[in-house]
Amino acid sequence: MIVVYVIAAAVVIILIPLWFVWRKGRRFTEGDVFRASRMSAGNRLFPTQVAITPQAVIHYTPQWIGKLEHSIHMAHVASVRIDTNLMFSNVLIETTGGHSPIQCRGHHKRDAIRMKELIEQHQSAYYRSGGDRPGSLGGYGGPAGSGDPRLPADRRSEA
Question: What is the pLDDT of residues 74-102, one digit of tens each?
């Protein structure tokens, strides 16, 4: 009877870390999420993921405790560079300020190309709709005296 308990305990001790690693490796959000291959360096236990939304690029790296998340607003993406190697591709997403680019290593070539296409599509749609950089007046360029659109309608002419 003791042998059964020892075997059951050993199975539980092995399965809990495996379940934890599997759980941390799941997609972190819905939509266009690209997960690095577990076969690539640095992605064996917790593969890096990149989500591309119409508003931002989010780089997500699970950790044993917590997560590391880095996001860049679509208006701040300056360039996307793909470095294709023999097996996997690396994607470098640079910002307009030149600080802290997103480095994505170990993606399949088709995923890297799709990431670049999505970023370009979302940027085109963003600027075509009249979007400006975050924190600006939203591209407001109305006639003089019509006021700041962030103010209530009754106070716009005062500004």
Answer: 889 888 999 988 889 999 999 888 777 88
CA proximity to 47, closest of 69, 31, 32, 62: 62
All structural domains of the chain with their residue ranges? 2-134
Q: Span 2-134: which CATH code?
A: 2.30.29.30
Report the C-alpha gap between 86 and 70 in whole angstroms. 27
Q: Which residue has the higher pLDDT, 17 or 82?
A: 82
Tell me the residue type at 31.
G
**Which letter does DSSP use for residue 83 in this model?**
E
Per the CB < 8 A criterion, the answer to whether 119 and 138 are in contact is no
d(CA 37, CA 34): 10
Predicted confidence (pLDDT) at residue 35 exceeds the cutoff of 50 = yes
pTM: 0.69
Q: How far is CA 141 from the centre of its chain?
A: 32
Q: Which structure tokens are listed for 98?
A: 């030149």
